[in-house]
């Protein structure tokens, strides 16, 4: 299986800046600055930069999203003849993070709220079909689990959308720079939760079994893995591990390192908490930050990770990234976008991936 993954990763990934659409909110200085920096570093063609104008708040109403984001990006793609050429879309900090639920959307799996990036992933199929997808609940990701398939249109009618965001511009520039220096070295740190009665633990074990043993640190004890060195990837339960009490893991992250965790609201905001804020529990509301006590995706980036996954609202465990797909794909040489979209079941849902879509470790032994 490992040999198959290596061959697939090296032969199937498409990693050209010509396939990237960079989306910039002209109403946001942060977004403009991020777009300028990324375009310069990656050499993004001018025709591949899509300028929109919308609010800077993290939440946007559905009607406004349709008009100022979805329709505006559709216009860019059509005008520049990029509809089929674009495979990856990268949004920028200063573009709204989530679409608000409508009052009549229903609860839980029937809700119509979603991460902006996850909604944009279905823009390709919407354009080809001539109508919008169903909004209530998650939509099937056709690329989920396709380990040996080359990502291309029209076979897979989606865009792979990631976001360049952090607590500030300096943080975004740092993750872009780290991504350009990624190398296939370091440890995959995989931390199970105890007691071991969760389905997610089986996915973590599968991920460990699909990687070279000398590249894996797997822990199934009550202890949390803190202060690890030379880390290229981390997967665990974050603040959902009852034994974790530190906001930061204290890792030394290598360039290209990614982080993923089974946490419902870690992508809820990119506002920076006070330095003395810490994770807590659902009983201590006065200790919450932006409506939740849980870990934050942006903290992994602040600590030195190059990319990280998150959720703007409750995704439910099955819809979180599956490390048994994410890690082997990334290890084999697939880029961040393809590795991530291989690992998530659903689109038009709560998931986000932070990082340069083209970031790649390259083949093992590079």
Task: Please give the structural blueprint.
Elements: H1 2-12, E1 20-25, H2 29-42, E2 49-52, E3 59-60, H3 62-79, E4 88-92, E5 98-99, E6 114-115, H4 116-120, H5 123-129, E7 139-140, E8 160-164, H6 169-180, E9 187-191, H7 199-209, E10 216-219, E11 231-236, E12 253-261, H8 297-303, E13 307-311, H9 323-332, H10 336-342, E14 346-347, E15 351-354
Parallel strand pairs: 1-2, 1-4, 3-5, 4-8, 9-10, 9-11, 11-12, 12-13
Antiparallel strand pairs: 5-6, 7-14, 13-15
Helix pairs in contact: 1-9, 2-6, 7-9, 9-10
Explained architecture:
This protein has 366 residues and is an alpha/beta fold. The protein has two domains: 2-163, no CATH class; 167-340, no CATH class. Helices cover 28% and strands 17% of the residues. It has ten helices and 15 strands. The chain has helices spanning 2-12, 29-42, 62-79, 116-120, 123-129, 169-180, 199-209, 297-303, 323-332, 336-342, and strands at residues 20-25, 49-52, 59-60, 88-92, 98-99, 114-115, 139-140, 160-164, 187-191, 216-219, 231-236, 253-261, 307-311, 346-347, 351-354. The protein has a six-stranded mixed β-sheet with strand order 10-9-11-12-13-15, with helices on both faces. β1, α2 (29-42) and β2 form a beta-alpha-beta unit. α2 packs parallel to α6 (169-180) and α9 packs antiparallel against α10. It is globular. The two termini are 20 Å apart. The mean pLDDT is 94.
Could you say how many structural domains there are in total?
2
C-alpha geometry: globular
**How would you state the average pLDDT, rounded?**
94
SSE order: HEHEEHEEEHHEEHEHEEEHEHHEE
Approximately how much beta-strand content do the residues carry?
A: 15-25%
Q: Which residue ranges are poorly predicted, with pLDDT under 50 across at least 5 consecutive positions? A: none
Describe the sheet with the most strands: 6 strands, mixed
């Amino acid at each position: 299986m490992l040999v198959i993954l290596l061959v697939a990763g090296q032969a199937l990934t498409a990693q050209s800046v010509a396939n990237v659409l960079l989306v910039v909110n002209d109403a946001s200085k942060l977004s403009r600055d991020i777009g300028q920096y990324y375009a310069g570093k990656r050499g993004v063609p001018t025709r591949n930069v899509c300028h929109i104008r919308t609010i800077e708040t993290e939440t946007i109403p559905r009607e406004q999203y349709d008009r100022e984001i979805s329709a505006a990006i559709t216009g860019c793609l059509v005008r520049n003849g990029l509809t089929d050429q674009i495979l990856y879309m990268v949004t920028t900090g200063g573009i709204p993070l989530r679409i608000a639920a409508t009052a009549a959307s229903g609860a839980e799996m029937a809700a119509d709220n979603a991460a902006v990036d996850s909604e944009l992933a279905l823009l390709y199929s919407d354009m080809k079909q001539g109508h919008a997808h169903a909004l209530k609940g998650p939509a099937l990701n056709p690329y989920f689990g396709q380990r040996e398939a080359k990502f291309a249109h029209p076979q897979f009618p989606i865009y792979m959308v990631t976001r360049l965001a952090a607590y500030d511009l300096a943080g975004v520039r740092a993750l872009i720079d780290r991504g350009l220096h990624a190398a296939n070295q370091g440890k995959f740190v995989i931390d199970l939760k105890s007691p071991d009665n969760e389905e997610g633990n089986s996915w973590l074990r599968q991920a460990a079994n699909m990687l070279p043993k000398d590249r894996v640190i797997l822990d199934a004890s009550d202890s949390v893995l803190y202060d690890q060195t030379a880390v290229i990837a981390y997967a665990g339960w974050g603040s959902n591990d009852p034994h974790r009490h530190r906001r930061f893991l204290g890792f030394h992250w290598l360039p290209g390192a990614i982080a993923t965790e089974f946490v419902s609201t870690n992508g809820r905001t990119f506002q920076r908490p006070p330095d003395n804020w810490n994770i807590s529990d659902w009983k201590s509301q006065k200790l919450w930050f932006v409506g939740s006590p849980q870990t934050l995706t942006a903290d992994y980036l602040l600590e030195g990770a190059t990319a990280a996954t998150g959720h703007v609202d409750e995704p439910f465990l099955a819809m979180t990234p599956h490390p048994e797909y994410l890690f082997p794909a990334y290890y084999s040489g697939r880029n961040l976008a393809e590795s991530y979209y291989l690992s998530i079941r659903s689109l038009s849902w709560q998931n986000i991936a932070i990082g340069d879509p083209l970031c790649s470790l390259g083949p093992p032994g590079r």
